Fold each of these.
Amino acid sequence: MSKLRNKDDIEYHSKGFGSTIPAVNVKVYDSLANGFRKFVKYESPFDPEFTEEWIEENISEETLNREWEFACEQGWEELQELACDIYGDQKIEDRSGRHYRYRVYSTGRSGGWAYIDGINHDVDSWDAIEFSKWKRFAERARIIADHVMFSVVWSAYYNHFEIAKEEEHDRLLNQEPTDVAEVLHG
């Protein structure tokens, strides 16, 4: 998604089989390799034994999938908090008298589009303030989606690599002295 300059740049998606509404594409297009590059950039210094290869050799695909799902769930929670920060956490009343709280939902076949229930979806009627709020939400939502694979690698380091290193260290400390010498000197 490019920067939103005006209302014409807003993306839309259908909510179920209904009409189209303003939505943000929050699909994750990143790879483990790119997530690792981001980790190297933002988490330095870290143990140089932690590599992309270490992740692939020591963490099962099932575990990585769970980490990815958790990072996505965290992203949706962050989107909800963002919507509350931008639009407020109050209830509003629509024409039918129903009460809404601003809520972020997903739509699309794989749930890769985010929309906010409770806002005015008639973009043509938006003033500069409503456009500015949507722009802030949309641009931050894309950043959150782009951060998912970094989060997966971050978790691999702090929740798997460091624990494996501690277990290896403890195992070496608990060996008989002759065994330690044998390990160290081959």
Amino acid sequence: MARITDKNKIERLKQSTMKLVVENGFGGASATLIAKDAAVATGYFYMHYKGKFALVNALLQDVYQEVVDKFEQLSSNGSSFNNIVENMIRHFFKMANAEPIKLKFLYVLTHDYSFVIDKNMRENIFDLIGKLKTQGHASGELDKNLNEDDIYLTVVLNTIQFINYRYKTNAKKFFFKKKDEDHLIYLTNKILR
């Protein structure tokens, strides 16, 4: 018998997972708590996901897929290294303004030692960063001493950290402006050259 899937329940599970991971960390967001927060039966959760790790990885994959799609779009239209870096940073800010929970979710998972990113996802991300590195070295827009880890730390993790820092230091709901983006792009370019 096929599973009956209620898209609203699945969306509630996803939103509750991100919310609880942000509030309690990966270890503090159990399948039972997620189901309760989403107002669905725990059995419904397990009918669609093998466990919390499977759901969190699926959510992380969705968020990173947005970033990968943006990167592939920029790469396919012949954008320069600097243009790709700038637009990737702007994409994170756009995501932060539209759905801040996604960026907070990324921040928590990148700083939570009880969570490990899926090996295939990591390889996919670093393959793309490797192509970006090659392009940056060839064009002279990237310091020849910098590698894939340096690019990931500078462009991805530093952007997530910058955004999260602004969230933490502003008590009210925070909306990023173009000047915030421009400032981080300026700092990033200084580091990468």
Amino acid sequence: MMQDTLRNTVDTYADIIEAMEDLEIAKKNLVSRLKVKLRLFDGSMLWAREVWVKGEMDAYSYYWLRSDETVIIGWDNAPHHKVVKTFPHHRHIENRVEDSQERNMSDVLHFIKHFLG
């Protein structure tokens, strides 16, 4: 399921994704882990990590980086910023933590595509 979701997402955003690199998929019992780097058309990259339990995404982090590997925006659902309205979902922009509606790789790539115009 996780691999199908990844392939569908990459296909959907093929206009902004130049390459998929450093793909790691690990499965143990009912837990699957995904790590992947997507190189985007403008030289930036998206590092993605997902943990799936029983076929449902349980945890995620997506970090959009410039070509020099400095962070543009990071999204995750680690439960450590209880002040955000969308807890545990949030995004990091510079030194700020904000509410986030982006909760999967497709949402994040949609945001990036529209941000880049």
